User: What shape does this take?
Amino acid sequence: MKVDVFNMMGEKVSSVELPAEIFETQINKDLMHQAFLMQMANARLGTHKTKTRSEVSGGGRKPWKQKGTGRARQGSTRSAQWVGGGKIHTPRPRKYTMHMPRQMRRNALRSALSSKASEAGVVVVDELTLPEPKTRLMAQALNRLVGDASALILVPEKDTNYDVVSRSTNNLPDAKILMASYLNIRDLFQYDKLVMPLKALDVLKTYLV
Assistant: This one.
């Protein structure tokens, strides 16, 4: 698949052939869904917790004697039916971790990139550079490249230019900057366009081809 390469002014400067092994694979929706569920599950902390009757303070004394009062027998004011009592069958701390083989995760990412490319959602730039860290400059560049669409911006590595681009992108609500080696299913489908320089494309080739 051949796509145009733009500069930061939105002008076409050349074209590049996207690797078919990454951007033209068979789209597997089930595999992408599995990878998405795994990512969302692994992001959960699992720290939710409520107190049972053994953990609620108080309730050490029997409210009234067992027989002779005409009332139902009670052993503690911290039973579940009492106000302020413990809870039953409520959340406890647990792990939601899910596992998925590396090759399946990478195949899911190839499917997602192929889906994005088939919808003309991949925008390639020659270099992702700005003269200074200004949100206005990044907003203008993205407006030329993707218009009103939201954008996920890939960068090849953390260097001086990364700091400038990152600081210029942080305050844009419809844009996110991400290392190319950290590309994932959730971020890929959360944004309309994928903007990446040629060097970021080289990084994708190192582990997806």
